[in-house]
Amino acid sequence: MKSKMQLLKNMRHMHRAGMAIAVIILGSLQWAPDIAVGKALHAEKKAPVDAAWRDGYAGDAACAGCHKDQVASYSHTAHYSTSAIAGSNSIAGSLRNESNVLMIVRPETTSENPGLFFKMEARNDGAYQTAVAGWPGQYQTKTARMDIVVGSGVRGQSYLSWQGDELYELPVSYWTDGHQWINSPGYKDGSMDFSRAVVPRCLECHSTYIHQLSANPLSNRYDKASLVVGITCEKCHGPGKAHIALESAAKPSAAPAAGVGILNPAKFPRDRQVDLCALCHNGLRGEELAPAFSFVAGQSLDKYLQPNSGEIAEKPSVHGNQVGLLKKSRCYLSSPGMSCSTCHDIHAPEKEAASYSSRCLTCHLASSCGMFKTGGVKIAENCVDCHMPVEQTDAVVSETVGRAIQPKMRSHWIRVYR
Known about the structure:
This protein is of the alpha+beta class. It has helices at about 5-10, 40-45, 60-65, 70-75, 200-205, 235, 240-250, 270-280, 320-330, 330-335, 355-360, 370-375, 385, and strands spanning about 85, 100-105, 115-125, 125-135, 140-145, 150, 155-165, 165-170, 170-175, 180-185, 195, 205-210, 220-230, 390, 400, 405, 410.
């Protein structure tokens, strides 16, 4: 049987290659008293307003000058908050004592197995995750700051940390269902690992822009100052600086020069409208045909990402192919004008599922439904739960303390399930 010292030695190698763990041996572990959520968290660090990311982009504040209502409404959507600078208003999980610990293996002096737990806490310069492994009096720790929040919190959040100009996913995520800390999907349960690199394609769908420092599509090196968090107006409408200058002129031109006008996805052909959503709601497509952040609204996505091949999985995932499932639906195939925006108002927060029934009833009669005889007219209040059910995914799983935690999402394959 291995000695405790040998097990401690082995734990130094429980992380992935390329990310060395700084080990601190403590005589005893004492947590600092709970900070009233540190000063830095109240200050709310923000991405630089003048971040040099793409020439011609103006930022949401400039859009609000003329589109105040749309910008105000959109700021409450999950798209807008799909990433944020870490702070007290953006971190959904508790940083307060007793509810800020993820216990994997309880450390006990008499146990042959080393303990392992993670603590999420506020300090004066930000929020941190600390992994603690070993036995009382023989602890090893590793700490990293929570710099970026990824996820709106509808289902959960993960957290990213800068190590120089390299960006890594932290090992602990927050799960909204049950209000609990869990192992981040992709990390091995029971490991003291902080080494999962964040590649450009992840950030392409969880931010508006960041400048890559390497042409390697798997590199996690970025210009930190260039980060524009969230999905902002210009992600879908294109650069706005020239448009704003034109509209602000003393005599605006009735016919702006090519490339000056703002992009309006509502005027795109249906395939291009759907491609814009499919950039991030298309499942995990194949080979990249162009670098991350090079896709522009109105382009064909097939020129940017290899189309999916083979049969589309029926069960959705966090990275599910909602667009692919929608395209299999009879509703979509029979309705040339149907697109994502038929049901979704991108500028407004999502509504209760039942509210979408009104869209169904523009084409379908409640009396034609097979459940009408038993359910009566009341079935017209909720078409969605029967024809677009919420299903558990097997594609994205968090293994936490031997338990599989799996997200649930609504299927976009509209059909009869009973």
